[in-house]
Design brief:
heterodimer; A: 206 residues; alpha/beta; Pyruvate-ferredoxin Oxidoreductase, domain 3; 6-stranded mixed β-sheet; 8 helices; 42% helix; globular; B: 645 residues; Rossmann fold; 21 helices; binds iron/sulfur cluster
């Protein structure tokens, strides 16, 4: 499948997170990798006021030959990349289906309601159980912590993209990533990003 | 970014709708572009500003939308191509000039691009700009995908020159902020020259004075132009039909709804039964083209956002053509097939179509849907919007809130538009009690301040951001000063248009092109008006509260408190900590503190977390930006700050 075709056309992928986590950056990098391969990509981002601590989502539609709507129809996601674990559940509620796969960063970002103790944040065990119960396959990665070792939590997003590459769900690999980031990054930044990508790939292996 | 200017004709790029629009303007050879920041429109001007040097453009962030339209129109009067860009409600601000510009006519190509926000994804309204096209009688175009977002901008300029009329091109959030494939055209060569011919005969459209009078003559001309537009639209390549020759149901749509309708038809697998008439020219609609399609079907579904704009026009046309096309059954917003409010999506369209056709869309098993809903409900606690960690507004509202409590006369604050609108939420301690349009906080406060003789004895405050101050609060403030209205305006000066991505405004020493510009100090402007003006740093909570209390006691006319501190997301500040923060969980006495957990229950900076296990507050070092404010909030001294060298 690595250099093969899409398992579905369009292939519907959602990147979900919290404002400020770099959702748009992640969707751009992935979009760049896929257009580099000649795929038609449509991305619908929600940002704006939602930058301030709200939930954010990018809908990515990938197709061999057509452009699709920037909103994925309900219940039709093939892959969900959650940069924050509770966001996986929020997205599954609307776009999940028994065949969906989930890549989940386990680092929580507490909402104001949780911070002040008004709302309860679920335990990681419960989160994992629910996500597994609602997906065909799910991976849980501690990407943010690993990224902080690289110097910036934002690399967590790149690890998630590496992890996506590692799952083989899409016909993209490390070379496509390198090509995409090399277009607008300095060589030393490309190196750190490649390291982050590789760590992501390792996280889903085995 | 570089491909915006360097991209070869014929090359294909993944672009945000707003970038595609900007590329379209470059391909059209635009010379002047002006706008006022507002989501979802801001990236168009930002992108053009980046290309300005390479392409020899003049680009500015104007003080408000009306001025932006005026600046762009001047280019047109001088024979250049001019572009004005704004969000939906910006057109309201520009509308007076818009009406007169529609009447006066234009010379060089003149295009207005409003970006609407159906569903109010980042607005406090879902107002429509399309009605303005009908109201002031100028042609309206709506791109139906990303490629068209680019191509139609170029065409809009050509059309404007052919008609000598302003042309409106409307985008929406799901085009402006979505990305798709765009194939480039060529960029024009050469630098056009400006000259304003104004000494000719007064009725000469190219040599005379530019104005909308004599009205009967000019208005008549305007209608001739609309007739010409209508005729051109009949064969416009941006009006397309896909589907069977005689569809059971004809969908008429435009804009992003074109993409949703296309998807819904595929989803239901009804390509053989449903036709899709996508209109790129939505005012006036091309009557013969629509007539032709109406004649081939009995059922019509109209899909659009947000109000019934196409639906009304198609129904009027059908009434006029009754004898030719016969009776039709209409589906859309008015009959409840589609929701009247909010944004559209493929699911809404599919549901409407499924009902009309009597088919069923394949859906997620009920058992799964139930579980997913439940897990989402229990497992994903809500995320209320809040100020960024280290945002000066949180500190400002903290002080305003506390000062009003201490003052104890039920004082209230009239709000305005910007990140600080969140002051209505618990994030801003629910301090704001009215919120309407740009600049309205101070205008409304000016009115409240005159209600003393009627018995209103509560202190009246308003807040206003620095960009909003220049945009439209100045006339309101002058009104308050002149009428001796007893109010306190708190100017939340965070050195930029924080909400929309930190665009410069007249208070800053640089412009949209990054060049030096004379900065206008709002404090000086207020002083010149005769207001009492104080300045404080909102991060210095003690002083801020003291000054505010003092101003609240002063009951003679207009007082202004300028709270100056840069936005936490500003390029200057991002990633730089003022303080190294520590929170000693041993010192924090938690619920026993007697402070009612000021830090986490009330102040609620996302950098401070309530640790259920330890029953104490905790600092989240990934999120804390080190503004230092919370150190002055904890009465036990558990939060300490150390200045970063
Ligand atoms: S963007 Fe700036 S002004 Fe807006 S909430 Fe964040 S820190 Fe505050
Ligand atoms: S210093 Fe305190 S108030 Fe400032 S960002 Fe950090 S936790 Fe929030």
């Amino acid at each position: 499948m690595k250099n093969g075709t899409l398992t579905s056309d369009p292939y519907n992928l959602i990147i979900a997170g919290v404002g400020g986590q770099g959702n748009v950056l992640a969707s751009r990098v992935l979009g760049g990798m896929l257009t580099g391969k000649g795929y038609h990509v449509t991305i619908g981002d929600t940002f704006g006021a939602s930058q301030r601590g709200g939930s954010v989502m990018s809908h990515i539609r990938i197709s061999r030959d057509a452009s699709w709507s920037p909103q994925i129809p309900k219940g039709r996601a093939h892959m969900i990349i959650a940069l924050e674990p509770t966001e996986a559940l929020r997205v599954l509620a609307d776009y999940g289906n028994p065949k969906v796969q989930v890549l989940c960063n386990t680092r929580p970002i507490y909402s104001v309601g949780v911070i002040c103790g008004e709302l309860a944040y679920p335990s990681l065990e419960d989160l994992e159980k629910w996500v597994r119960g609602l997906s065909e396959k799910a991976w849980f990665l501690d990407a943010t912590n690993a990224a902080m070792k690289l110097g910036n939590p934002i690399f967590g997003n790149i690890m998630m993209i590496g992890a996506l590459g590692g799952t083989g769900a899409l016909p993209v690999d490390r070379q496509d990533f390198e090509a995409a980031v090399s277009r607008d990054m300095s060589p030393d930044r490309v190196q750190v990003n490649l390291a982050a990508y590789d760590m992501g790939v390792k996280m889903v292996e085995g | 970014m570089s491909h915006l200017v360097d991209g070869e004709p014929g090359s294909r790029h993944l672009m945000m709708g707003n970038e595609a629009i900007a590329r379209g303007a470059l391909e059209a050879g635009v010379s002047v572009a002006a706008g006022y920041p507002g989501t979802p429109s801001s990236e168009i001007i930002e992108t053009l500003a980046k290309a300005a040097e390479a392409r020899g453009l003049y680009v500015e962030w104007s003080t408000n939308e009306k001025v932006a339209l005026e600046v762009a129109a001047a280019a047109s009067f001088a024979g250049l191509r001019g572009l004005a860009v704004m969000k939906q409600n910006g057109v309201n601000v520009a509308s007076d000039f818009l009406l007169h510009l529609a009447g006066s006519g234009t010379r060089g190509g003149m295009v207005l691009i409003p970006c609407d926000d159906p569903g109010a994804l980042s607005s406090i309204n879902e107002g429509e700009s399309r009605h303005f096209a009908r109201l002031v009688e100028v042609p309206l175009l709506e791109p139906g995908d990303f490629q068209e977002a680019k191509d139609m901008v170029k065409w809009a300029f050509e059309l404007s020159e052919e008609l000598q009329s302003l042309v409106m091109l409307r985008s929406v959030t799901r085009l402006s902020h979505a990305s798709g494939d765009v194939t480039f055209g060529a960029l024009p060569e050469g630098q056009p020259q400006a000259a304003f011919h104004c000494d000719g005969f007064v009725l000469d459209a190219n040599e005379g004075a530019v104005m909308s009078a004599p009205v009967d003559y000019k208005h008549g001309q305007q209608h001739d132009k609309l007739k010409k537009a209508e005729a051109l639209f009949e064969t416009c390549p941006f009006n397309t039909y896909t589907g069977p020759e005689k569809p059971e149901v004809l969908v008429i749509t435009s804009s992003a709804c074109n993409l949703y309708s296309r998807e819904a038809i595929k989803l239901l697998d009804v390509e053989g039964r449903v036709g899709l008439l996508k209109l790129g020219t939505t005012w006036p609609i091309p009557p013969r083209l629509v007539e032709k399609h109406l004649g081939l079907t009995d059922k019509v579904l109209i899909v659009e956002e947000v109000v019934c704009f196409l639906e009304d026009q198609v129904k009027i046309l059908t009434a006029e053509l009754g004898a030719q096309v016969g009776v039709k059954t209409f589906f859309g917003k008015r009959d409840g097939s589609l929701p009247m409010v909010g944004e559209m999506n493929p699911d809404h369209v599919a549901a409407a179509l499924a009902k009309i056709l009597g088919v069923q869309a394949e859906s997620v098993p009920e058992e799964y849907a139930g579980r997913a809903q439940e897990a989402g409900f229990v497992g994903a606690p809500g995320r209320e919007l809040t100020f960024c960690p280290g945002c000066p507004h949180r500190a400002s509202f903290w002080s305003i809130h506390n000062a009003l409590e201490l003052d104890n006369r039920k004082g209230f604050v009239c709000g305005d538009i910007g990140c600080y609108t969140m002051g209505v939420l618990p994030a801003g301690f629910s301090t704001l009690k009215t919120v309407h349009a740009m600049g309205s906080g101070t205008g409304v406060a000016s009115g409240f301040g005159k209600l003393g003789p009627f018995g209103l004895d509560q202190p009246v405050l308003s807040v206003c951001g620095d960009s909003t101050f220049f945009h439209s609060a100045i006339p309101a403030l002058i009104n308050a000063v002149h009428h001796k209205s007893d109010i306190t305006m708190v100017l939340l000066d965070n050195s930029g248009t924080g909400m929309t991505g930190f665009q410069p405004h007249p208070g800053l020493p640089r412009d949209a092109l990054g060049e030096d510009a004379p900065a206008i100090d709002p404090a000086e402007v207020c002083r010149a008006m005769g207001a009492r003006v104080e300045i404080a740093d909102p991060f210095d909570i003690e002083t801020t509260q003291q000054v505010l209390l003092d101003l609240l006691q002063d009951r003679k006319g207009v007082k202004v408190l300028v709270l100056r501190q840069i936005c936490a997301l500003s390029p200057e500040k991002k990633g730089k900590k003022l303080y190294e923060m520590t929170l000693d969980q041993e010192v924090c006495v938690g619920e026993n503190c007697g402070c009612n957990r000021l830090c986490t229950r009330i102040f609620r900076c996302p950098g401070l977390v309530w640790d259920h296990e330890k029953q104490a507050a905790r600092l989240d070092e990934v999120i804390c930006t080190g503004c230092g404010v919370c150190a002055s909030i904890c009465p036990s001294g558990a939060i300490q700050r150390r200045e970063v060298a």
